[in-house]
Design brief:
alpha+beta, 5-stranded mixed β-sheet, 34% helix, elongated, binds adenosine-5'-diphosphate, binds magnesium ion
Length: 587
């Protein structure tokens, strides 16, 4: 085939692959245009997940009748003055409208202050159909319908209406949060879902928008960040270390009011929380960084969700130092040092993976220096005492429980060694396998709650849970819709009785969010059970009696896969007699 230049239509459709993956991207581009047009009120309407219809209406300065055609032309923009380094608006590439127009039917109606009538432009699949006078107040109304009709591959890629709707909601909330002085309304399938008024005074975060995005509890469980240094301004809220989530979903970063994604910044924030937050958990946060537009490049990707900083180190240090200083002001001791202690003992390994004997020798000699022998009333004696331990369970594979270490590790003795069991990880596995067994035998034991519990959830999580009501039912959860922003939990799997239902459902919702919907139903069920199992199992930190420990060991022995926790880590390790003798140079 000869080489030829692609038609404008095709170019736009190709660009759409980069910028418009799903309806939510359109919602974002249109709201950004309204904000750039200095609107003080923005109304968004969505039907059938946005595939059937997306409408964004604003009261901004509008588009002149004779410029309407230009607005839908590629690389036509009113926002850039031949200088890419001074971008103050959201838009600057002049791509959104032509791209959207190429994959939908679009109608733009607009009126400026000095026009008598509005003008309306109609485009079908990128082709101009008509331009005619219309009648609206000052502002712009963009209506996008029949999305992706011409690009069926894209249409197939879309998720259910509910999921697409929740992505749209998500974008809407992110934009509304960063523009407290603009009124925002969202209408979904004919129902007004959000009606955010502006705050009377100040630019601060609006509490109703915050609780719609992060849940009400975030507000009373967060610290204010307000920090200025080297010309950077950082403002917002971060959660107490104790208020954390199993995913990074609730981490909203903005740079010059643009919602961005930045793994490096999030990584350094995690470091700022360091040991205050348990492994695998994430703080909730919403942080706005302001800096000179000259110090940041927003033209990294067409979707403008990534940015590049001139001085990345300076930027991350702003986040880290401000969060660290706020956390250090918390009066309560908020973390235990268990992690340090457990690595300082004799089992700390050096690089060659051998147990470091010198360290133990040093530890003992410094202990001897500080303590005199007569401090202890019982002296070691060569005479034997009757053992208080029962030897009955010694022959079991996991042996007889003898002690608990750090309220989390069961130490047991077998005929040929010592076993250390992580009680929480092990029990989590047992609970998971129990649910799986019941499910596979079609004998799910569900526990009806005496008083059904109402669990409030943020928009996206709520939709994900509602979408999976039937899946959840197969493992013993009975859940119903409850109003706009909550579910009613009527029953939970029996093995999870006494769980904290709020946290349980919240974590399941977040697990669903993490998984996306690309995975099979079985994988989904598996992950939900893994997450839930945590709630039905003994926590680390619980003191167990010898009988309880033995019961757990016996259960482990008859549970499939019990040597691995639900996250793939080992649940027990063994030091054989052979190993012990080698260490003592008896062999
Ligand atoms: P960009 O935002 O990058 O300039 P778009 O394709 O999104 O590109 O929009 C093209 C132009 O159309 C904008 O530069 C602006 O002049 C005009 N425009 C788009 N939407 C609106 C709106 N809601 N109000 C006023 N003008 C608008
Ligand atoms: Mg734009």
């Amino acid at each position: 085939m000869p080489i030829r230049t692609l038609s404008d239509d095709l170019i736009n459709q190709i660009a759409a692959g980069e910028v418009i993956e799903r309806p939510a991207n359109i919602v974002k581009e249109l709201i950004e245009n309204s904000i750039d047009a200095k609107a003080t009120k923005i109304e968004v309407f969505i039907r059938n997940g946005g595939v059937y219809l997306i409408t964004v209406k604003d009261n901004g300065y509008g588009i002149y009748e004779d410029e309407l055609l230009l607005a839908v032309k590629r690389y036509a923009t009113s926002k850039l003055n031949n200088n890419l380094s001074e971008i103050k608006d959201f838009g600057f590439r002049g791509e959104a409208l032509p791209t959207i127009a190429s994959i939908s039917n679009m109608r733009i109606t607009s009126k400026t202050n000095d026009q008598k009538y509005a003008s309306c432009l109609e485009i079908e699949g990128g082709k101009l159909k008509a331009q005619k006078p219309s009648n609206i107040e000052r502002g712009t109304l963009v209506e996008v319908s029949s999305l992706f009709e011409k690009t069926p591959a894209r249409l197939k890629f879309l998720k259910t209406n509910r999921i697409e709707t929740s992505h749209c909601k998500d974008v809407f909330l992110k934009m509304a949060l960063s523009h407290p002085n603009i009124e925002f309304q969202l209408n979904i399938d004919g129902r007004k879902v959000f009606d955010f008024k502006t705050k009377k005074n100040g630019n601060d975060l609006n509490l109703d928008r915050l609780s719609a995005s992060f849940g009400e509890q975030f507000i009373s469980n967060s610290l204010d960040i307000n920090h200025e240094k080297y010309g950077y301004k950082l403002k917002g809220k971060v959660s107490f270390p104790t208020f954390n989530s199993s995913t990074s979903y609730y981490q909203f970063l903005y740079v010059n009011n643009r919602s961005i994604k930045d793994k490096r910044i999030l990584g350094s924030i995690k470091a700022a929380y360091s040991e205050t937050i348990p492994k695998g958990r994430f703080p909730y946060l919403i942080l706005f960084l302001e800096l000179s537009p000259l110090k940041v490049d927003v033209n990294v990707h067409p979707s403008k969700a990534e940015v590049r900083f001139d001085n990345e180190r300076e930027v991350t240090s702003i986040y880290v130092s401000s969060i660290k200083s706020e956390i250090s002001k918390l009066s309560e001791p908020i973390y235990s040092k268990i992690e340090n202690k457990s690595t300082n003992g004799i089992f700390k390994k050096n690089n060659s993976n051998e147990i470091n004997q010198n360290e133990l020798t040093n530890e003992i000699s410094s202990f001897a220096k500080d303590n005199s022998f007569d401090k202890f009333s019982i002296e070691p004696s060569a005479r034997s005492n009757e053992s208080t331990f029962s030897d009955q369970e010694l022959d079991y594979p996991l042996g007889a429980a003898r002690a608990q270490y750090l309220k989390n590790y069961i130490i047991s003795e077998t005929t040929d060694g010592i076993i250390v069991v992580d009680q929480h990880a092990a029990h989590e596995r047992i609970v998971k396998e129990e649910i799986l067994k019941q499910k596979n035998n079609n004998k799910i034991c569900s526990q009806l709650l005496l008083i059904p519990e109402i669990v409030k959830l943020p928009a996206l999580q709520l939709d994900l849970i509602l979408n999976e009501i039937d899946t959840l039912k197969t493992i013993g959860f009975e859940i119903e819709v409850f109003g706009d922003d909550a579910v009613l939990v009527r029953a939970i799997p029996e093995v999870l009785t006494n769980s904290n239902i709020q946290e349980l459902i919240g974590d399941v919702a977040q697990e669903l969010f993490e998984l996306g919907s690309q995975i099979s139903i079985d994988e989904k069920i598996d992950s939900i059970i893994s997450t839930s199992a945590c709630y039905g199992s003994v926590r680390s930190g619980r003191i167990l009696s010898i009988e309880e420990m033995n019961a757990l060991l016996r259960k482990m022995e008859i549970t499939p896969n019990s040597n691995q926790c639900n996250h793939g880590r080992p649940t027990s390790i063994k030091l054989s007699l052979n190993d012990i003798e080698k260490l003592f140079k008896r062999r």
